[in-house]
UniProtKB/TrEMBL annotation:
CDD domains: fer2
Segments forming domain 4Fe-4S ferredoxin-type: 150-172
Designated name of the protein: Succinate dehydrogenase iron-sulfur subunit
Record's keyword terms, sorted: 2Fe-2S, 3Fe-4S, 4Fe-4S, Iron, Iron-sulfur, Metal-binding, Oxidoreductase, Tricarboxylic acid cycle
Taxonomic lineage from the root: Bacteria, Bacillati, Actinomycetota, Actinomycetes, Micrococcales
Pathway(s) this gene product operates in, as recorded in its UniProt entry: Carbohydrate metabolism; tricarboxylic acid cycle
Metal-binding as UniProt keyword: yes
Protein family (similarity comment): Belongs to the succinate dehydrogenase/fumarate reductase iron-sulfur protein family.
The keyword Metal-binding appears for this protein: yes
Amino acid sequence: MNPAVKRRPAAGFATITLIIRRFDPDVDTEPRWQDYDVDVLPTDRILDALHAIKWDQDGSLTFRRSCAHGVCGSDAMRINGRNRLACKTLVKDLDTSKPIYVEAIKGLPLEKDLVVDMEPFFESFRQVQPFLQAGTAPQGGRERLQSSADRERFDDTTKCILCAACTTSCPVFWTDGQYFGPAAIVNAHRFIFDSRDDAADVRLDILNDREGVWRCRTTFNCTEACPRGIEITKAISEVKSAMMRSPEAVRIA
């Protein structure tokens, strides 16, 4: 929608109420709730409703978004108490007879309104060395070949878009800012089980820590929150099993 053109009411539109947890560090000492009425279609997304508020009602409302198609992961937020992507959450899938509550994801420092500081999240991601590490050059200077079965072994965890929805849905992460969190473990899994990689033991050693995989309490919040449908709890369990099989691993509980 062109932000300069206000959408005219038409058949099929309904008015919903969004109650958004606002915070302006230049003005507020604590977050506050503010409500907005918005005209939407059932097939509109919560992101569309947020755009309507920002463009037509309150230009100070602050949130992240980019691709708007569930690929970049930048618009992760809590919608009615659940971590979701605003661009993938349709109005028709929510109970619009009641207000819809929208707030920033939990466990990361709040910067403004629906925007959090993602740096602690990305620091954990970087610590697990999420890149291919091979000790030898590919034969003949060609690419490193891999069978379909070997590729399938870690296919699920390649889907991560680093939206932080899983990590910020984790009660352990909320209470322990040192915990690596599900997303970092998922991205370690992607290389631990890659047949072309030679650094699995390095990553297992990194995660064999008091703030590593053993902090997971298997609540399945992360799996439920993932907008890409990754079986995150299963991936964490597989990393734990690999660690137990590693001759150099010593469990730290």
